[in-house]
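Check my protein:
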Amino acid sequence: MSDVVEGRNAVAELLRSGAPVRRVLVADGVQVSGLAEVERLAASAGVPVERRPRRDLDGMSPRGAHQGVVALTEPFGYASLGGIIGRAEGSERSLVIVLDHVTDPGNLGAVVRSAEVAGAAGVVVAKRRSAAIGPGAWKSSAGALAHVPVAQVTNLARALRELKDAGYWIAGASEHAEELAWDAPLDGRLVLVLGSEDRGLARLTAEACDFLVRLPVAGSVGSLNVAQAASVLAFEWVRRGRA
C-alpha cells in the first residue's frame, strides 16, 4: 500500500524533506506552475516521474485537488511522544500542539502547517476517533507534514501528564474559559490543547490542563474554526518569544 500526496506544493515539500517517495505521477498535458521544480526535485532524489491520463489521478484524489501532480509514498511514519519531547530537551522555549479528537483531515493538516511555521516541536493527536494523515491532511498542510513530527497516542490525558513531567505548561483552548489568551502565560515550554470541531475539549482533557484560555470575540459567532484558533494561539506564543 502507498499513501497518496497530492498537489504541487505538498509534493515539492515531500521531495525536499527526503521522505521515501516511490513515484511521482503527472497528468498528461498538464501545465502547472511549479511543475518543473517538482520534476527537478524528483530527479535529484532519484524518484521516477510517470505521465498518466488525468482520469488516473482523478481516481486517486479524494478531494479532486491534485493540480495534476500526485506522489505515491511509504505510509506516513508517526513519531513517538518521547521523540517530540526529546526535540526540545534543554530548551527554555518549546511549543507542542495537542488535538483532542479533531476529525477533519483538512483541519489537521492546517494545524500542522501553522505548527511548522510557528516552529513547534510537534503535534500530538488521539489514535482513535481522530483524523489520520492522508491526502486531505497532506494537501491542507502544504507539505508541512514532511517537516513536523506527528505523534498518535492512545490516551491524551496520560500524554499531557508526560508533557507536564517534561516541564511543559498545559493550556487548553475553550470558548467558556474565563481567562483571555492575551492575559495568560502563553510562553516558555507550552502545550496548546484544542478540542474537536463540534464538542471542544473533552472533560478529562480539560481537567488535565493547567489552565484554560479563550480568544476575545468581537463579532456574533462564538468561536473560530479549530485550525484558525490554533494559528492565533501559536503565534501569540511566537510573539511572546520576541518581546
About this structure: The first helix runs from residue 8 to 17. Residues 155 and 207 are 14 Å apart (CA to CA).
